[in-house]
Design a protein that fits this description.
Largest sheet: 3 strands, antiparallel
Shape: elongated
Number of strands: 3
Structural class: alpha+beta
Distance between the termini: 31 Å
Number of helices: 2
Radius of gyration: 17 Å
Number of domains: 1
Strand content: 25-35%
């Protein structure tokens, strides 16, 4: 899986925001929103790769019961 995260340049240096965006278009929109904020000098869009074997899916028990009906 591939996602994107933003690295934001403030007067004190670069910081990553920690949010993962799953579509590049969403990353562009979020970077434009962040750039409009006060104190932001620049934004980098970084690619995040998540290996499929690291993903763990959990399903609520009541959802599993509905699926079995």
């Amino acid at each position: 899986m591939q996602g994107f995260t933003l690295e934001i340049l403030f007067s004190t240096g670069w910081r990553r925001n920690g949010q993962i965006l799953w579509r590049f278009g969403d990353a562009i929109r979020e970077s434009n929103r962040v750039l409009a904020g006060n104190g932001v000098r620049g934004v980098r869009i970084l690619t995040v790769t998540i290996p499929p074997e690291t993903i763990h899916e959990r399903i609520a028990e009541h959802e599993a019961e509905v699926a079995n009906v």
